[in-house]
Amino acid sequence: MISPIVLPLTAGLLCFLFSHKTFTIALAAALANLLAVCFLTWQLLVFGPMRCHMGGWQPPLGITLRTDGPALLMLLMTAVTGLAITLYARGYFTYRIADPRHASRHQRQQRYFWPLWMLLLAGLNGLFLSNDIFNLYVTLELIGISAASLAALSGKPVSQLASFRYLMVSLLGSLTYLLGVVFLYKSYGVLDLDILQNITTSGPGMRAALALLSVGLLLKTALFPLHFWLPPAHANALAPVSAILSALVVKGSFFLLFRFWFEVFASIVTTPALSFMGALGAIAIFWGAIQAMRQQRLKLMVAYSTVSQLGYLFIAFPLARVDGDAQVWSIVIFMALAHACAKSAMFMAAGTVFLHLGHDRIKDLSGVRASLPITVFAYGIAAVSLMGLPPSGGFIAKWMLLTSSLVSTQWWWALVIITGSLLASIYVFRVMSRFFVIPEGFAFKKPEPLSPLLEWPALALALLSLLLGLVAPWPLYILATGSTFLAQIFPGGLP
Amino acid sequence: MITTLLYSLTGLILFGMGIFTLFIHSHPLRKILAVNVMSTGVFLILIATAYTPLGQGNIDPVPHAMVLTGIVVSVSVTALALILACRVQETSNLNLLGKKRQGRIPEESSK
Predict the structure, then answer these.
(1) Using CA atoms, how far apart are residues A235 and A176, in angstroms rounded to an integer?
(2) Among A61, A157, A168, whose Cβ lies nearest the Cβ of B94?
(3) Of residues B31, B77, B85, nearest to A141 (C-beta)
(4) Do B70 and A178 touch (CB under 8 A)?
(5) Does a structural domain hold residue B105?
(6) Which residue from A60, A221, A425, B27 could staple onto A254, CB 3.0 to 4.6 Å apart?
(7) Any CB–CB contact under 8 A between B47 and chain A?
């Protein structure tokens, strides 16, 4: 069970040692990670959820790792997206190193990218598996440190400034989280999530602890109004890094937040608090979409679209009380999976367009369709999933959201979801139409052939996000395995 | 009991001061110091929870282990933050206020 943590960690350290074979090491680790996660999934399906006590120490003192449905789906998401990003990053760096003007700078970037990416992967896997509230703090810091250094890699002053702010925000978030952990330890004297879940009692100290934990995690998840750091940090990073940050890193802290609210401390969460989160999510959807429409640069637009899409994850919160926890788990996990695939595909496509044209100003994107058909196709399919058109994964998630908001007679959330999708289609098509417009007198120059590694991973991920809608029962089956409260997951919701 | 309370309150005040400075001041060094003060506050509270009056049982070792881990994390994060702050000042005429720096024009970096 520890292999998804140990493999990338070892690979990251090896990358520092053997600076010439970094790609081989990273690719091997990403593949092995995928295999390990598949094996864990098989184990889950056969034996049910498992616990692993590290070093043989029992829970009140030792650290526990655990696998269950939601954690494994997130691990699978990380492994698959991570593999595609690894391949894409190879193509990206090879292309840039081939440019003789800044070859040495790009070579240096590549040398630092691989170990940092592997450490980030180890941190993410640790976050999804860990069952100890202080160990989770350590993984959060590991993610924060490696993500901030990855964001600074491009070396441009703007991106360094953005990543400094990112680091400060992520530190503030994790220290607030740590204060929450301290409050918990003061009241109960335990750190294990299972034990905490059983002994949680409502009280002011407990509420304060949950509030601190939540604020810390919300800062890292970039929910409106705490999203201010996200667009500059994500948009100014290198393309593979943007994909990693947007698709995986924000999901990590969100997953933790969700687990706290709906599993560990579910007994003390109140309905007004849930509605408050939903309201913030709704504002995030609108604000992110409106900002995305106003952007002049493709990558900034995609980054603001992340702010908007994260809002949908929080809309699910107020729907939980009426409809039961099972529905809300499947909605949120599905939304996270679909968004991870689609958003990383979109950032990869944006990165390829940037490499091809040398800029990403939206108004000058005309005619890209003719020279980069595969990339534009990938962008389009990812956009389908973001807008939530059938049969994409995004559609299934939004459909489940809509039905549960109507069933629970909270129709205003349905209104928000529909308007949000409309706004999403506006900002997506604003770019799409540019791709297809071929201005008069457009000189068709034969483009230099791009490496397949630059175009195909994006397309594969985009197709995956589309196919998620068709194979929806499988992930939901994994999600439901072995958890009693998820047993009645299939009825309703699915179209 | 009173001792624990005293230390915990001091820790909370330090945490609050850190947050205040982090929001109010825009100079990078002050921000980094503010984060350090915040983490010291948290560690102080943690240590205070481990306190047991003399002769009333053993001291709880878990908070000490947590503080040690926290210190390691805090040192490495501070190092990274300092490097980033230096880089921003070196490679650009932006300082961390987001404004143009007054006065001398910074020399072009050799990269």
Answers:
(1) 26
(2) A157
(3) B77
(4) yes
(5) no
(6) A221
(7) no
Say if residues A247 and A277 touch (Cβ distance below 8 Å).
no
CA B93 to chain centre: 27
> Does the residue B24 lie in any domain?
yes
Task: Give chain B's largest Cα–Cα span.
Answer: 66
Q: How many other C-beta atoms are found inside a 10 Å radius of the C-beta of residue A268?
A: 16
Which residues 103-132 in chain A show a CB within 8 A of chain B?
A: 105
Asked if residue B81 is part of any domain, the answer here is yes
- The tokens for B106 are 């910074």
In three-state secondary structure terms, A132 is strand
Check residue A108 and report its DSSP letter: H
Reduced to 3 states (helix: H, G, I; strand: E, B; else coil), residue A192 is strand
Q: What is the CA radius of gyration of chain B?
A: 19
Interface residue of A146, A154, A161, A186 to substitute, partner B, most B CBs within 10 Å: A161
Is A89:A351 a contact under the CB 8 Å cutoff?
no
CA–CA separation, A23 and A457 (whole Å): 16
pLDDT, tens digit, for every residue of A235-279? Answer: 999 999 999 999 999 999 999 999 999 888 888 888 889 999 999
B85 touches chain A (CB under 8 A): yes
Total-model pTM: 0.91
Least CB–CB distance from B28: residue in A152, A155, A164 = A164
Does B101 fall in a domain? Answer: no
Q: Does B70 touch chain A (CB under 8 A)?
A: yes
pLDDT tens digit sequence for A12-66: 999 988 888 889 999 999 999 999 999 999 888 888 888 888 888 887 788 888 8
Q: What are phi and psi of B56, to 5 degrees?
A: -115, 50
Q: Residue B48 burial by CB count (10 A; 0-12/13-18/19+): exposed, middle or buried?
A: buried
Q: Does the distance separating the beta carbons of A172 and B88 come in below 8 Å? A: no
Q: What is the pLDDT of residues A115-142, one digit of tens each?
A: 999 999 999 999 999 999 999 999 999 9
Q: Which residue, among A207, A204, A181, has the nearest Cα to A192 in the 3D structure?
A: A181
Radius of gyration of chain A (CA): 22
Hey, is A366 helix, strand or coil?
Answer: coil
pLDDT value for A269: 86
DSSP class per residue in A38-69: HHHHHHHHHH-SEEEEGGG--TTTS-EEEE-H
Distance in angstroms (rounded) separating the CA atoms of residues A96 and A150: 17
Partners of residue A171 in chain B, C-beta under 8 Å: 35, 77, 81
Look at residue B94 and give its three-state secondary structure.
strand
Confidence at residue A483, expressed as pLDDT on a 0 to 100 scale: 55
Give the tens place of pLDDT for each residue, B16-48.
999 999 999 888 889 999 999 999 999 999 998
Rounded to a whole number, what is the distance in Å from the CA of B51 to chain A's nearest CA? 11
Domain that holds residue B65: 2-91
Q: The domain spanning residue B14 has which CATH number?
A: 1.10.287
Say what the ipTM of the complex is. 0.86
Q: Exposed, middle or buried, A458 (CB in 10 Å: 0-12/13-18/19+)?
A: buried
Give the separation between CA A222 and CA A214, rounded to whole angstroms: 12
A191 and chain B in contact, CB less than 8 A: yes
Residue A202 pLDDT: 80
What's the structural domain count of chain B?
1
Chain B residues closer than 8 Å to A189 by CB: 60
